[in-house]
Amino acid sequence: MSQGSRGILSLTAQERPAFIATFLGWGLDGFDYMIYTLVITLLMQAFHLTSGQAGLIGSVTLFTSALGGIIAGTLSDRLGRVRTLALAVVMYSLFTALSGVAASYGILLVFRALEGLGFGGEWAVGAVLIAESVAASKRGRVLGFVQGAWALGWGAAVLLQIILTSVMASNVVWRVMFLFGILPALLVVYILRHVPEPDIWAKQVSKPTDTVSFFTIFRPQLLRKTVFAALLAVGAQSGYYAIFTWLPTYLKTVRHLTVIGSGSYLFVIILGSFIGYVLSGFINDILGRKATFAIYAVCSGAIILTYTNFDISNGLMIVLSFPLGFFASGIFSGFGPFLAELFPTEARGAGQGFCYNFGRGAAAFAPAIVGYLAQSYGLATGMSIFGPCAYILCLIALLFLPETRGTELVESTTASA
């Protein structure tokens, strides 16, 4: 990975450790989180759950991940990006693994809630770490590659499910898959040994200050950016989680595909996601942050509506799976650079952690609402309600945010106003 990334991304020796740590961290984050989406039907059978109860687990995980991102982002402004990232990775890997030994619905709900704290913290801190570690001219494409790791982690989870399903009883598969979630903890050794703190953070933290970074983002100079960046995140994540939490279940229960059959659709979506993440990073550096968000938002809404709301053949569905993954996933590559460029170093972790994870917290309601809607109107209808409306919210938020492409990261609130 590092050799290929060196040529494409032109990473320096100082930039490479942060890239490796965040790339692997985000990939393993995706692996751990997407396991749940793949075993929803097995959990419903094991604990005799309704779709609403199953959706509630997804929503609670996303809600606590919002809290985790805000806490970890703020903590990283004081404790450091590297140590906070390591703590987040340990937390989400530990509680994913413990989910595999849950004896009841209530215990599983608690473990997934605690997993969410680390899950949210990992992105918030990792995105700040890599944004502060690379040059402004390539920040978009580097973060695009980092986001692309999520698709690779998702693909690994699908592959693991296919392998385990072929050799184990279904009532054991979900437990073993969760137990594999302990693997990301191994990454912590590399993070603590090889990844340095960004110079810009080290300079800022050496300055005496009585300001708590979290409250800085609500000062008049930053309030408008905070509010509308948070709404942008609400729109993008509501659209994403409304469909991708339930997509494996949709393919199995509505389209009546087997695990292997649905796996082929998911792999097409994952391939589209990876390419969408990576190309979005380059497009962000070429067209700018706002134009890229707008293109991906419009196309995401249109594809989701077509995918879930029209009577199309399975053959056409697999074709549409590629752009579905490309646009609905690729939109997230812009958040890392955009949010980092909106906030000064003294509050960058807090700003990035709050805005992105406020969006995740609001989007946490999507899986549960879709689940409850599915009980009355069908799963396809529930999924299609959130998509287009969510991406319209993205477009509205963009109208009130500045373009930041090429922005050099600054240390003070005054400089960023």
Task: Describe the structure in your own words.
The chain has 417 residues and is mostly helical. It has a single domain, classed as Growth Hormone, Chain: A, CATH 1.20.1250. Helices cover 81% and strands 0% of the residues. The relative contact order is 0.17.
The SS-based structural class is mainly alpha
- Count up the domains: 1
Q: Provide a count of the helices.
A: 21
Question: What would CATH call the homologous superfamily?
Answer: MFS general substrate transporter like domains
- CATH class category: Mainly Alpha
Quickly give the CATH architecture.
Up-down Bundle
Q: Tell me the distance between the termini.
A: 38 Å
| Largest sheet composition | none
- The CATH topology comes to Growth Hormone, Chain: A
Radius of gyration: 20 Å
- What is the string of SSEs from the N terminus onward? HHHHHHHHHHHHHHHHHHHHH
Summarize the topology.
Blueprint (H helix, E strand, L loop, with lengths): L1 H8 L6 H23 L1 H8 L3 H29 L1 H19 L5 H29 L5 H29 L2 H10 L7 H8 L4 H7 L7 H4 L3 H25 L2 H7 L5 H29 L1 H21 L4 H17 L4 H8 L2 H19 L1 H13 L1 H20 L14 H4 L1
Q: What is the gist of this entry?
A:
With 417 residues, this protein is an all-alpha fold.
